[in-house]
Specification:
71% of the residues lie in helices and 0% in strands. The protein is mostly helical. The longest helix is centred in the N-terminal third of the chain and has 46 residues.
């Protein structure tokens, strides 16, 4: 699940924290990097578990309204279609999800306000109304509903993000809201893999597809730390009129990690590395930082005459 885009972002964030905290040992930096991947995987699991939490909340609301209608002798006609959603049932009985949630001691308890808010928003969503009112009832519609919840309702929802922030603090996690859009894409990918006959033994996405990605992450962090003086000197020599004192610290960190990758991983096309770190700068640094970073890296690459195609 953790791809190289996430690896690069986490290495930059870990290195930034490493220096902000006074430059702890390299081993400690590595531990923090591994922890950051682990907590991102926790977010993946918690977003899958959100299917169960929202369904359970809907069940409670259904039963309460049913009791009120019974007490007031009203006609009760609320649909159970959302509660009986077959994809939700598969998630509830998925053995790996149940085991992971239990073993990692994960819980939505600190984020229940977000569950309530999303349920209220869901009931107003046109795609949900269409789902409830549709005459045709099939698994494909059940599956699609949850993909739309993950892709259309959760991103940028302030109540949901606040709930994640609360849980992040409660569970001593990090970067949850920063990684949310990427992790949601993997949750949608997971839901898309489920079919009507998918059993409770269905495997979830692993934290890493293979050991190479983890090794890349550890090596990139190590090379960036070890090459600090060399890379910062290269950066200083290519400022071309920029005041070193006014360059954001994050920009220096992004450049340092980018140079570690470009110099130490010649098998990765330079253009790929450039594009990745320019995107990181757009996301995590100043408005014009990506232009500055692109210019500095381009100058260094040309000066060193790296034998790689731009």
């Amino acid at each position: 699940m953790i791809n190289r885009t996430l690896v690069r972002t986490h290495v930059v964030q870990t290195l930034f924290a490493h220096y902000e905290q006074g430059g702890n040992t390299n081993l400690q930096a590595r531990k923090e990097l591994i922890k950051s991947f682990d907590t991102t995987y926790d977010l993946y699991l918690m977003l899958l578990e959100f299917v169960n939490e929202l369904t359970h909340y809907a069940q409670i609301q259904y039963e309460e309204r049913q009791q009120r209608a019974k007490a007031t002798h009203e006609v009760f006609r609320l649909s159970r279609r959302f509660i009986d959603n077959r994809l939700a049932q598969q998630m509830y009985y998925n053995k790996e999800l149940r085991n992971q949630i239990a073993n990692r001691h994960l819980s939505w308890e600190a984020g229940l306000n977000g569950v309530s808010a999303i349920y209220q928003a869901l009931q107003q969503a046109p795609f949900y109304i269409d789902y409830i009112e549709a005459l045709e009832d099939n698994y494909q519609a059940d599956n699609m509903l949850w993909r739309k919840i993950m892709s259309e309702l959760l991103p940028n929802n302030e109540d949901f993000i606040n709930a994640l922030d609360e849980m992040e603090i409660h569970m001593d996690a990090q970067n949850w809201t920063i990684d949310l859009d990427v992790v949601l894409s993997y949750v949608i990918k997971t839901i898309r893999r489920f079919k009507e006959d998918t059993s409770a033994d269905e495997a979830l996405l692993p934290i890493f597809e293979n050991n190479e990605e983890l090794q890349f992450a550890e090596d990139l962090l190590q090379f960036a730390i070890e090459g600090h003086d060399e890379y910062q000197e290269l950066i200083a020599n290519h400022l071309h009129g920029w005041d070193p004192e006014r360059i954001p610290f994050m920009d220096k960190i992004i450049l340092q990690v980018a140079l570690a990758e470009i110099i130490k991983f010649p098998s990765i096309a330079i253009q790929i590395s450039l594009n990745e770190y320019i995107e990181i700068a757009k996301e995590y640094s100043g408005e014009k930082s990506y232009l500055f970073i692109n210019g500095v890296l381009d100058g260094i690459i040309r000066e060193k005459k790296l034998h790689l195609t731009l």
